[in-house]
């Protein structure tokens, strides 16, 4: 994770808990590396009395050009190393702020500006966020800009990309400032039970952000509009009503201004719940594929994955704050004087807290990925039953393979995958097809 992702990592985990992101080529992608657009079901996957799920899975995987497979594998495997480098880079940045006493200096500056504690905290948080953004910018620009362009997954030039980075910085300053002032206020007033109250505040904060994100945060970066094409919306809304989902509208997001990836999601909850498709999916996906993807997204809603995720991450946050209580006390006893940190309620402790958070998330990566991957598999199975489009689902899995390795090893998938692998998703679809040959639609998953 780059700087902004790590600083609000738990928030990001919650806000993005219900999405499938099958990628699709666009004219801007590098030639010879895009996944194929499947205009007909391969012979080995055709519905017949002798249909075999393993054979059908292999038939779909055989459609992937070797160059595309090699490039996808290289991109995704490179991400394994980036997890390590992101952790090391952020840890180094935090240690610089601590050992060079820059954090203490930023605190001292805030105290010289005002005596009002909440305002001191806000000033320090602004200084800290800007400092971390600068220190981690080289890795951010490589990972999010140059590397994405290298693999044909980005569409922005550097200027618009930087504008989005500045928007992200401003959002972090506002959200981080609000949360930080409240948390430090809690710590200063509740010396013994601060970790329990801090966990509670963080949980409430995350829930509020998940609630408002579709309406207030997403539009900062992308244009979100109601989708008016009845050829697209009517099948989706019929599918929603058939599955007890009170959706009246389908929304479109202009993700193509940033990426070539196709995606859809169900975000928010209550009155802010939205079904959203990005314009890459609408432009490049077949009708069968769109229905399969939307069936998956509706599965997240019907299976209450957003609420389940809130509960799961609430437990994670409580564990995190219990870990903070122990680790901060132990660290400050040993190095607090060297770093000129006066105690847990001192804003200068924030780099240490972020370092401990980075360690926690790095160690917890397989656990967090397994939770999300399990929900995604559940939504896959629900989507297959709802949409009855196994071949459209297989096409979506192949498109996803433009930026995710299709056939990982068992341990590799357990550690690094927050969605089932492409091979597993296609095999699940073909198993469903084998058990439902009388209802699976044999027609092509053709291009729109």
Write a structural description.
This protein is mainly alpha-helical. Residues about 1-30 and about 440-448 have low confidence and may be disordered. The chain has a 5-stranded mixed β-sheet. It has one domain. Helices cover about 65% and strands about 5% of the residues. It has helices spanning about 5, 10-15, 55-60, 65-100, 100-115, 115-150, 160-190, 195-220, 230-240, 280-285, 285-300, 305-340, 350-385, 390-400, 410-415, 420-435; strands at about 20, 225, 250-255, 265, 275-280. The chain is elongated, with a radius of gyration of 23 Å.
| Low-confidence segments | 1-28, 442-448
Largest sheet: 5 strands, mixed
By DSSP, the count of extended strands is 5
Supply Rg.
23 Å
Distance between the termini: 36 Å
The assigned structural class equals mainly alpha
Spatial ordering of strands, largest sheet: 1-4-5-3-2
């Amino acid at each position: 994770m780059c700087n902004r992702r790590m600083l609000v990592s738990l928030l990001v985990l919650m806000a993005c808990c219900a999405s499938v992101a099958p990628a699709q080529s666009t004219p801007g992608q590098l030639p010879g590396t895009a996944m194929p657009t499947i205009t007909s079901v391969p012979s080995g996957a055709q519905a017949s009395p002798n249909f075999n799920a393993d054979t059908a899975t292999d038939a779909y995987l055989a459609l992937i050009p070797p160059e595309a497979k090699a490039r996808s594998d290289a991109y995704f495997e490179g991400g394994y190393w980036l997890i390590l480098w992101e952790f090391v880079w952020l840890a180094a940045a935090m240690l610089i702020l601590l050992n060079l006493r820059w954090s203490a200096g930023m605190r001292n500056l805030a105290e010289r500006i005002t005596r009002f504690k909440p305002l001191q905290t806000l000033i320090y948080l602004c200084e800290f966020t800007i400092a971390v953004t600068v220190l981690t910018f080289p890795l951010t620009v490589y990972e999010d800009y140059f590397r994405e362009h290298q693999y044909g997954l980005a569409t922005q030039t550097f200027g618009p990309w930087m504008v989005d980075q500045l928007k992200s910085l401003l959002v972090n300053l506002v959200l981080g400032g609000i949360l930080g002032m409240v948390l430090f206020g809690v710590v200063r007033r509740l010396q013994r039970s601060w970790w329990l109250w801090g966990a509670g505040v963080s949980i409430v904060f995350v829930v509020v952000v998940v609630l408002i994100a579709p309406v207030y945060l997403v539009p900062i970066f992308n244009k979100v509009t109601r989708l008016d094409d009845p050829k697209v919306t009517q099948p989706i809304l019929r599918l929603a009503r058939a599955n007890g989902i009170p959706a009246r509208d389908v929304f479109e997001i202009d993700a193509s201004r940033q990426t070539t990836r196709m995606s859809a999601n169900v975000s928010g909850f209550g009155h802010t719940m939205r079904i959203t498709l990005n314009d890459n999916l609408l432009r490049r996906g077949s009708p069968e594929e769109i229905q399969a993807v939307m069936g998956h997204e509706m599965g997240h809603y019907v299976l209450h994955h957003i609420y389940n995720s809130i509960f799961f991450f609430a437990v994670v946050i409580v564990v995190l704050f219990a870990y903070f209580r122990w680790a901060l006390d132990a660290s400050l006893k040993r190095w607090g004087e060297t770093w000129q940190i006066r105690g847990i309620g001192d804003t200068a402790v924030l780099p240490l807290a972020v370092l401990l958070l980075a360690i926690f998330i790095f160690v917890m990566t397989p656990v967090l990925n397994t939770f999300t991957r399990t929900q995604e598999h559940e939504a896959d199975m629900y989507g297959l039953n709802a949409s009855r489009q196994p071949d459209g689902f297989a096409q979506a899995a192949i498109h996803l393979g433009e930026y995710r390795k299709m056939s990982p090893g068992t341990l590799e998938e357990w550690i690094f995958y927050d969605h089932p692998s492409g091979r597993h998703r296609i095999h699940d679809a073909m198993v469903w097809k084998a058990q439902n040959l009388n209802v699976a639609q044999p027609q092509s998953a053709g291009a729109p």
